[in-house]
Specification:
The protein is of the alpha/beta class and 266 residues long. The protein is built from nine helices and eleven strands. Helix 3 runs parallel beside helix 4.
C-alpha cells in the first residue's frame, strides 16, 4: 500500500489511538485530533479539534491540506455514549451525544469532501456500532445517533457514486477502551421502577466492554480495509456472539428478537 495521508478524529485513547499507531507503523502520514490532545505523541501529529464545532474541524482540515496537499483517508472515530431511561435523560446530555455522533460526522464530511472531490479520490470510514442496527434498552439515544450516522454514510455513497471516493460504516461490537469512563449517565436516579435495572444494565455493559475485543485487534481489521479499492457499505467487527445477533435479527420476527434483547436487561 502506498503512503497515504490519514486524518483520524478521537485519537487521544482507545480505538482511535490504536488505529493511528497502526497506520504510523505502516509508514503513513497520520494526523489525529481530540479536544484535549496529549502534549507529545510519537505516532501522530495531534491537532486540537472539537468535532461539535464546525470551524474547529474546518481549521484542522485546512491545516492538513496546507501541509500535505491532500487527505487520502478520513476515519471519523470521535463519539460519545449515553445510558439511562428515556423518561429521565437530560436534554443537554442528549444534545451532547447527538452533536458529537451526528453533527460531528457531518462537520468532518463537509470539511474533507471538497478536496477529495477535487482529487477524485479518497476513503471515508465512520466508526459506528452494532447498536446502530439493534435497539438496546436504556441506550436508545446512542443507538439512534449511530443509526443516523450509518444512514448519512449510505446516502453519501450514492451521492458520490460517480467518483472514486468510497465510504463505509464500521459496525463495531464491544471494544476494551475507556468508553465506560466517558459515557454519560442519568444522575441520581432514584425512581424504583428504573433504579435497580439501570444499575444492573450499567454493570452488564461495563463487564461486556471489559471482555470485548482489544482496540489493536479492531484497528487491524479496519486497517486492512484501506487496501481495498472499494469499501463495503458496512463492515461488522465484533466477537462471534455479537455478529450472530445481527444474523438472528434477520431471521426471527421483530417481537421474538425484542424479547431476546430485553431479557439481557432484567
Amino acid at each position: 500500500m502506498k503512503k497515504q495521508v490519514i486524518f483520524i478524529t478521537g485519537t487521544s485513547s482507545g480505538l482511535g489511538k490504536a488505529i493511528a499507531e497502526l497506520c504510523y507503523e505502516n509508514g503513513h502520514i497520520v494526523y489525529g485530533s481530540s479536544r484535549n490532545p496529549p502534549s507529545e505523541n510519537p505516532y501522530v501529529k495531534e491537532l486540537k479539534v472539537d468535532v461539535t464545532d464546525q470551524q474547529s474541524v474546518q481549521n484542522a482540515v485546512n491545516y492538513i491540506l496546507e501541509k500535505e496537499g491532500r487527505i487520502d483517508v478520513v476515519i471519523n472515530n470521535a463519539g460519545l455514549g449515553i445510558i439511562g431511561p428515556i423518561e429521565y435523560l437530560d436534554v443537554a446530555d442528549v444534545n451532547r451525544v447527538w452533536h458529537t455522533n451526528v453533527n460531528g460526522l457531518l462537520h468532518v464530511l463537509q470539511a474533507v469532501l471538497p478536496s477529495m472531490r477535487h482529487h477524485n479520490a479518497g476513503k471515508i470510514i465512520s466508526i459506528s456500532s452494532i447498536a446502530s442496527v439493534i435497539a438496546l434498552p436504556f441506550r436508545g439515544v446512542y443507538c439512534a445517533s449511530k443509526a443516523a450516522g450509518d444512514k448519512i454514510i449510505q446516502s453519501l455513497r450514492m451521492e458520490l457514486s460517480q467518483t472514486n471516493i468510497s465510504c463505509c460504516s464500521i459496525q463495531a461490537g464491544d471494544i476494551r477502551t475507556s468508553i465506560n469512563e466517558n459515557r454519560l449517565k442519568v444522575k441520581d436516579l432514584e425512581d424504583p421502577f428504573y433504579a435497580d435495572i439501570v444499575k444492573r444494565t450499567n454493570q452488564h455493559i461495563d463487564d461486556e466492554v471489559n471482555k470485548g475485543m482489544s482496540a489493536r485487534a479492531v484497528a487491524l481489521e479496519i486497517y486492512r480495509l484501506l487496501s481495498h479499492e472499494k469499501l463495503p457499505i458496512t463492515y461488522v467487527v465484533g466477537k462471534p456472539l455479537q455478529k450472530l445477533s445481527l444474523w438472528i435479527k434477520r431471521i426471527v420476527s421483530e417481537g421474538v428478537f425484542e424479547k431476546i434483547i430485553a431479557s439481557y436487561s432484567k
